[in-house]
Design brief:
alpha/beta; nine-stranded mixed sheet; five-stranded parallel sheet; 32% helix
Length: 354
């Protein structure tokens, strides 16, 4: 799936060349495309060779500036602009698309960023019909994704201006995390997290909607959703935890969190909560982990939480598909000093505790 579409402006997003024509026009078809991509949760950005101020002013006059999370408007190479957008969003290049009317510009981006998908301007009206721009389901967070990223940029700007220690800044955010059993309403977002999250995904395994529904109905499994909020607004659903509770061991089959909450230590908060719950229940924890090209940071989170390779025979049968099993003898853990956690008691019927 495409996670962000980067638009050229002249003769692509709008009709005409701003510096030459003065007046440019946005067709109803392109406006519809912009609005619908936003509703589907696909972010949009701008990479244009123009003077920034008049170009951005024109986007505002056309009523579409708010739909673009980032704009790189200047006279440098388009590939540099697209790369900067991908870096700022922390997106893999293969999830970025670029649309431009100039073959030379598309070729330049393709040469330097071969994983970025490039489209000619004539394709703009048909993007909504392409599978890579068509999520299988709209989730509870889809229509809010752009606002969440924009709030994130405001949050980061305040962090940059904050003079105190980082932990003090995190406290100032009034972070609140909720962990709760998934319902039918959250299933599409849970499936999406298993698909879209690569850096903070412990196994890279995709769980389909059908599989998740089966696990919801299985009393031995817990499918848990993680949400976060702070004073800037909601981060939405940012994590999924899949645990099989056995008599002597809890099998953590999947932990995936959004890259947006890595800097808040979300993974560590979740793991410490789970380990503490296991200690209360008097069981060990075994976590599945499979190395991918991008999930090194998740491995570090597991190691810091105390998970290690072990000869523990807590689980029957061998792991498959390159999956390692990391073991931990659970002991009680202190809660986070910066994140207020509202979560269930896994060992006593999922009653919520603060």
């Amino acid at each position: 799936m495409v996670k962000c579409l980067v638009w050229d402006l002249d003769n692509t997003l709008w009709q005409g060349t701003l510096l030459e024509d003065g007046e440019v026009r946005l067709s109803d078809e392109i406006r519809k495309t912009i609005v619908e991509l936003d509703a589907r949760g696909i972010l949009q950005a701008v990479a244009s060779k123009n003077d920034h101020e008049p170009a951005w002013q024109r986007l505002e006059e056309l009523g579409v500036a708010e739909y673009f999370v980032l704009a790189r408007i200047g006279w440098g190479p388009k590939s540099a602009s697209v790369r900067a957008i991908a870096d700022e969003l922390n997106f893999a290049h293969k999830t970025i698309a670029f649309i431009d009317d100039q073959p030379a510009e598309r070729a330049e981006v393709q040469f330097h960023l071969p994983e970025v998908r490039c489209y000619e301007a004539e394709a703009a009206a048909g993007l909504l019909g392409l599978p890579e721009f068509t999520p299988r389901a709209r989730t509870i967070d889809s229509g809010k994704r752009r606002q969440m990223y924009q709030a994130g940029f405001r949050r980061e700007a305040e962090r940059a201006d904050f003079a105190g220690p980082d932990e003090e800044f995190l406290r100032s955010l009034e972070l609140e995390m909720r962990i709760f059993p998934a319902t039918e309403a959250e299933l599409s977002r849970v499936e999406e997290l298993t698909l879209r999250t690569s850096q903070m995904n412990a196994t890279g395994v995709h769980y389909s909607d059908e599989t998740l529904r089966g696990l919801l109905a299985d009393p031995g499994h817990e499918v848990l959703v993680v949400t976060m909020d702070d004073r800037f607004g909601t981060h939405g659903a940012v994590g999924v935890v899949l645990v099989e509770r056995l008599a002597r061991v809890w099998h953590l089959k999947l932990l995936a969190t959004s890259c947006r909450v890595v800097s808040f230590g979300a993974g560590a908060v979740i793991l410490n909560w789970l380990v503490d719950q296991a200690a209360r229940a008097g069981v060990h924890v075994v976590a599945d982990f499979r190395r991918t090209e991008r999930n090194r940071i998740m491995e570090i989170a597991y190691r810091f939480a105390g998970f290690a390779e072990s000869g523990c025979a807590c689980l029957e049968g061998a792991a498959a598909g390159g999956v390692e099993r990391l073991h931990l003898a659970a002991e009680r853990r202190e809660g986070s000093g910066v994140v207020k956690l509202i979560a269930p008691e896994l060992g006593v019927g999922l009653g919520l505790v603060k």
